[in-house]
Amino acid sequence: MTEVAPGGTFVEPAGMEDDVAALFAGDLGVLPYDARRALALVLQRRYLSAAAHPAEWRALLAHQNVLASRCHDMFVELVVDRDYEIAYKRQVREAGLSIPVLLKDEPYKRVETLLMLFARNRFRQEQGAGERAAHVDAEELVDYALGFLAAGETNLAARRREIDNAIGALVREHVLDEVADGRFRVQPVVEILLPVERLRALTAWLRNPSVAPVGTTDDEPDDETDDASDAVDEDEEAPA
């Protein structure tokens, strides 16, 4: 079956029997380079998008069945959302099967979740207005998060640092892409990360902050050096 890639071009699925040159000493892999990168990026990141990695996205579509098979061998499901042009992974859980869990739940921190909620609302508003893109400013995000401070909170500098760290985390996760200093484009993946069920839980949480919803945690870093600011992009090398 021929796949349609972004832009309306056709991608012919490639068979595993096709000869592929070895990429390194002792290489037994049968997938071409871009397909391997697609699989590795899906496993490494929260998601792979066509916008950020067009070559790997095309390779994923061309080799979707075999990549899904590779994931299934590890009890992991490959989810491909063609509407939003996003692929991500999900842990398989099946009653009656003893499955080693490879994917740890990595919940977003509370402030990150608040910012995602604001970003998702902005994304839906702009979509409803017929806009092709949705943007938010850093100060809008800060003001929104500060609105949920506990009564009597006095350490505003620490709270502002937490919010700034949360914005940085969402940029690293490519939920937000910085297009100018302090201005961010909201990526469609926010719809995937905050489905309707989680929105209901978040609404209940906002009414009763003492109960954290599924997918959030109160384990906030106490110091900005404890955040994920040293995360390395998949195309960069870690310093020696």
From TrEMBL:
InterPro entries: JetB (IPR025449). Residues 217-240 have a biased composition (Acidic residues). It comes from the Bacteria. Residues 210-240 are annotated as: Disordered. Pfam families: DUF4194. This is DUF4194 domain-containing protein.
